Structure formats: structure tokens, C-alpha cells
Amino acid sequence: MQTKIYAHRGSKGTRPENTLVSFQSAIDAGADGIETDVQLSKDGELIIMHDEKIDRTTNLTGKVVNLTLAELKKADAGIKFSPDYQGEQIPTLKEVIELLKDNNFKGTFNLELKTNHIEYHGIEELVDKQMEQLPSDIHLLYSSFNPNSIRRMQKINPDAEFASLFQFKIKESRQLAKHHLITSLHPDVTWLRERHGLFWPKLLIRPWTVNSVKDMTYCFKKKYDAIFTDYPAKAIEVRKDIQGD
Ligand code: G3P
Ligand code: CA
Q: Is the CB of 35 under 6 A from ligand 1?
């Protein structure tokens, strides 16, 4: 079994993160999975954005929660990465699903519920409704740093796969695993390496964010289920060297 390669915010290392060009690049590279982050706009639209504020990645300022979809669509999400991507917009979840469909993508779609700083009321129900548009041959994987979001989404759609994200503290993830609410763990690779791996036979391990050849090599040798990387094309090459075609 090969370690799968999940593109973190798309091909974040070579394209503006969490934009349609970034997801397209990851699909073109042959990524096994696409990871992205969802938040809620002022007018209740499902917005693809990592930070709560749009300042770092776009030419405008403000919080997603305080802006309408129309206002968010005016932001340029490409220019700060490179003038080559000027005009890229902040996508909605609907648009990302459309892109996956247009590409006949058959891998994993990992949607992170970005509810650890702002607990967007009702986001899980809205996401579940939108996911009705996701083709059944795309594997749906939800993750979150917020255990309450996982609990809520698990109740709404127990058929999806659930993973607990954590950077340092594994306690909440242990609780979710104990109650069979998750089947996989998504730890910070630095945390994982400092602890010389993580032995938890019943859970699938998928570290993030695995960008250096050194970290990739470590994860491929450990044969973890998957890695999250900003460089899916590079990871595919490194995997070939270690795990073969
Ligand atoms: O899913 C792995 C990774 O996305 C978690 O961290 O901050 O990049 O969303 P972050
Ligand atoms: Ca994420």
C-alpha cells in the first residue's frame, strides 16, 4: 500500500493557496486527495479560506464573518502570491465541488471545518447540504481542530470519514477516538517526529505539513496512510523513490 498524497490548500507551494488554480494544479499533478478549509460569510455562504481574516492572502482586509459573498468576490486572492495569478478569486465550497466534478476527480476530498477560532453557528448543516453535490465516488473526509464540530458533523452524516487535527495536545483526539467518532488522526509532523512516531494501531495517521524531502522520506518509510503537503508534484517523485510506482 502506498502512502497517499493530499494537497494542502491545493498546491499551496506553487500556486496561491485555496484558489481554484491551486486545486487544479494539485489534480493535474496527480494528488490522491485535496485538502481545504471552509468558513462562513456574513450572508451565510460557504467560503474557502484558511485564515479568519482575508488580509494575508488577498489585497483587501476584514474578517470572512463580517463580509458578504459579493464583497469577498471583489478580493484578489492571487496577486500577493504572484502577479501571474492576478484576478484569482476566493472560491466558494460549491465552486470547488464543481471543479472536482469537471475534472472527474476520484480521490479524497478533505474538508477542514475551520471552526476553532470562530464557531460559525450552523456551518455543519450548510456544509452537509452542499455536499449532496459531491459525486459518490469522491471519498469525503472531514477534519477539524474543534472536537465539537466533529461531534456535530458526525451526528449529521455518520457515513463520512472523520479525522481529528491537532498540533500539540492529543487529549481531545483521544476522547473522540475512545467514542469511535474518528477513524484517523492528523498530527503536526514536527510533533510526530519529536515523539519518534505515534503508535496507534486502530487509527490512520496523516501528518501535516510535510514539505521537506527529509520529512517526506520519514513519512514514506513509516508508511503512514497519507501526508499533507504544499508540494504534491514533488511528493509524488519522492514517494516513487521510496515506495515505487
Ligand atoms: O489538514 C492539515 C492542515 O490543513 C491543518 O492545518 O492550519 O494548515 O489548516 P492548517
Ligand atoms: Ca487546513
A: yes
